[in-house]
Amino acid sequence: MKKVGKLAVLGLTALGLALAGPQDNSLVIGASQEPRVLAGDFLSIISNQAIKSEIEGYLFAPFIGFNADSQNFPVLATEVPTQQNGRLRVTDIGGGKKRLEMDLTIRPDARWSDGKPITTEDVQFYFEVGKAKGMPVLNPDYWERVNLRVRDARNFTVIFEPAYYYDTYGSPIGYAPKHIMGAEWEKVKAAARNLDPDKDAEKLNELYRNFFLKFATPQALNRGAMVYSGAFKLRRWVPGNSIEMERNPHFPIKPEGGESRYVQRVVYRFIQNTNSLLVAVIGGSIDATSSVSLTFDQGRSRQLTSRAPGRFDIWFVPGAIWEHIDVNKFENCQAVRDLGLNDVRTRRALLHALNREGLVKAFFDGLQPVAHTWIAPVNPLFNPNVRKYEFDLKKAEALLAEMGWRKGPDGILQRTVGGRTVRFEIEFVTTAGNAIRERTQQFFAEDLKKIGIAVKINNAPSAVVFADDYIQRASECKWTGLFEFAWVSSLAEDGSLFQYRNLNTGAIMVPTKENNYQGQNIGGWRNDEFDRLTSQAVLEFDEAKRKQLFWRAQEIWAEELPALPLYFRANPYVVRKGLVNYVASAYAGGYGYPGWNAWEIGWESRGAVKKWDQAKYALSIR
């Protein structure tokens, strides 16, 4: 679909424990995060959580998939558009820009889970909602460039102008069920008709959010408010505990030997404390772990590896998952002004004070690389030669001294700002219950204390901190210091995480009230040369020239440090022996999640045919 009571809880948990695995042809997946919403939030307006995207891979199928080998393959489209088959046309439009047209045909047997055909009306509906005035989309640049031409119920053309080099990776557009959501959308359109996106951004935001929520909350989905197009459909969501999905009989792709040989029921169990999740894995109530589950050190722990032989495989998938600390740089926030977070010297001092090499050695035996930019080493655009910040407390202290910081009686730095004496006490936010992140906070808090910086930890569950009314509101001082989390990147790198303005479309990428909180540059960094380089790079179809532009952009980024890079994660996956085709790679499905081929996941003992080998894409601990 998308491009991005107490007794009941006990009952479902007991069912998951008793029937996990091949006995009833089910699959129980353990995850450390729970989505805030699902399904109806098809533009990720309410939430952009990784766990949401992963689960939706079971519930919705793309027109064009992206397999573990980073290759396109048709799912709900009849074939992949190429220049050879005449479905892909590239036209030079001057100024170094190109226009791209892609013809797609929807499979004649594509159906929603209620049996209704998936048609171009659903594509038009998705397009109309995404293009709505003031819609707070995460990727405004995409919506500025894309256009749609519908020929009939099954055939349509997607147009990109200007085209970017990655527009042919995976599906060029999504779709949503007009027959389910259309009537409610008409009410929203009527209510929004006389609203001005510049003057009435908050009203529009509330209108749109309420629209998506009607089809996305656990309560709505348990009432049957939504339909699905993927290999599975949602059966039951017990908040705080689990989501259960069952086979969608209307999904058109049938795996080899017939779908009865493959997994019939998928249960996601949510155990936010990763230590408790590890216990559940060892105890046998989990068949496989999610991309958001155990930490790297837990995946290598003796208590797990000693139980592995004959029971499960442990895989480490090198990924494009960037663990980092974002920094609020909005000077309208008092704490940002007081601490000088919008001064590059402060950010450099903070990074010099964080013993990242010590962290990866202590927590990961040095097997996860320290990051120096936001682009992963597995990406061809990665620049290994940027400025690097070694752990050096003296350099950190010297930079802070330049800014007037001196240690006070309690050993904490202080300085005078606007006639007031302020202490260097900084807020540090991350996802509660994630053991490695909470340990990282403590590890870095000790480093910062050595140079006189006090840390105030302010954690909350992922559903809270990744909600758009928190993560997107740094400009309103919802968080005022440091925010540690991970971005999951794809081959479609465009620099938009740190652009202020996309020069190809004019879209502002920093979420504020003025643009209805669109974009993902949440910390508010601005560098005009970075914007120019990345805007030019995405137009460049010559790989060598594109790489040169991105290399320079990374050099600027490493000088300015809009965020503090930590490391690139290799995700651990624990998979019960005999489960086949549950495979992740750096870019499988676009973002590396397992489940991109949900219809093929099954148990060998039930006759499932192995098509994909995880050993090709990961390292194993045996």
From TrEMBL:
> Per the record's keyword annotation, is Transcription regulation included, yes or no?
no
Question: Per the UniProt record, which residue ranges are transmembrane?
Answer: none
What would be one Pfam family of this protein? SBP_bac_5
Q: Belongs to which family?
A: Belongs to the bacterial solute-binding protein 5 family.
Q: Where is the signal peptide?
A: 1-20
Protein name, entry field: Peptide ABC transporter substrate-binding protein
Q: Solute-binding protein family domain location, by residue?
A: 102-470
Which keywords does this chain's UniProt record carry? Signal, Transport
PANTHER family with a match to the protein in the record:
OLIGOPEPTIDE-BINDING PROTEIN APPA (PTHR30290:SF9), PERIPLASMIC BINDING COMPONENT OF ABC TRANSPORTER (PTHR30290)
| Originating organism | Thermus antranikianii
Q: Which domain of life does the protein's organism represent?
A: Bacteria
